[in-house]
Amino acid sequence: MINNDTLYIEEINLYQCNLCNSELIFNENDFLVCISDNCGKINKTIDYSGEWKTFNNDNACDNMSRCGPIINPLFKESSFICKVISNNTNKKKSNNLKKCIEYQWSYKEKTIYDVYQYYQCIAQNNNIPEIIVDDAILFYKKVFEYEQSFRKCNKDGIISASLYLSFKLNNAPRIIKEISDLVHLNSKTIVKGCKLVYNIINILEQNYDNNEKMMLNETKPIDLIERFCSYLNIDTKYLEICKIIANAINDNHFLQENNPQSITCGIIYYVVVKYNLNSITIKMIKDIGNINEATIKKCFYKIKMYEDKL
To answer: Is the distance from CB of 232 to CB of 280 less than 8 angstroms?
Structure first.
């Protein structure tokens, strides 16, 4: 935004005015000011962080500092609502006030907030990074704002699908079975939710330029191999062998007719058989990858065919 005496910009040259090319200096308020009398431009930045104020009396013992709330882009309307902090003396009254304030939330934001809390609980219990939660709630918010009427099974599927897409977007893909274990939901509902989310996002992005559209990388065996080996407690040296084989298969375009989790299970089974890791059975590999034994053995024999090229 530009007016007569103030310019708000995102990127500035600290030493030269971009209007008249004169030198910039800091004034007493630590703003960059142009030295030219004809220009007089001031470069200011807006601070969006919380605003701290103190109401302390010099003789008061309690800390009376207060901070103005930051506007949350996910919950813009609810960010203006007061926050009630209680202590042990008036806990009952404070809880009643908290409930009254919660009733002021709009249905849309309350629903999104409940899902956000659900994601936070999953993240804390499973050591999932915060960025996964942030992207998952953004996916869910997009879908929810497009279509707010969902049946219970569809809603659960969309919540799970948003989490699945968030993992994929951040190059840490999870298979459907892993998402199912996280959210305690059957795989069929999650797959249905993924289809619905994909369709809605495609509709929302149909008028976007290609560089603005969401880009999801293809899942490769190398993305899954380390985690699967971790579940099976496979030694590091055998993990490195599995990685070498996975990269070789991908680089040479072998086993293109099989999905990544089938290839991953086949690679692990190949290493188990080749190096006589008797503590690991094909049933254990099958349970982790959610792949039947026949498919694992087919991948195993195909890998054996390319043994000389790996």
So the answer is: yes
For the chain, the maximum distance between any two Cα atoms, rounded to a whole number of angstroms, is 84
Contact (Cβ atoms closer than 8 angstroms) between residue 255 and residue 302: yes
Domains 109-212 and 221-309 share a fold: yes
Distance CA 154, CA 176 (A): 16
Nearest to 277, CA basis, from 229, 222, 211: 229
Closest CA to 178 of 242, 138, 227, 244: 227
Find tokens 């982790």 and name the residue.
288
pLDDT in tens, 54-109: 655 555 555 555 565 555 667 666 655 566 666 666 677 777 777 776 677 777 88
Could you read off the pLDDT of 140-196 as tens digits, one per residue?
A: 988 888 865 566 568 888 999 999 999 998 888 999 989 999 999 998 999 998 988
Q: Where are the domains of the chain?
A: 52-102, 109-212, 221-309
pLDDT digits (tens, 9 = 90+) for 235-273: 999 999 999 999 999 888 888 888 899 999 999 999 999
Kind and range of the H or E element at 93? helix 91-102
Q: What is the CATH number of domain 221-309?
A: 1.10.472.10
Report helix, strand or coil for 109. Answer: helix
**DSSP letters for 223-263:** HHHHHHHHHTT--HHHHHHHHHHHHHHHHTTTTTTS-HHHH
Give the relative orientation of helices 282-289 and 221-231 as an angle to the nearest 10 degrees. Answer: 120
Asked if 154 and 196 count as a contact pair (C-beta separation under 8 A), the reply is yes
Helices (H), 103-151: 107-126, 130-146
At 104, list the tokens: 């002021």
Domain 109-212: CATH superfamily is Cyclin-like (1.10.472.10)
pTM of the model: 0.69
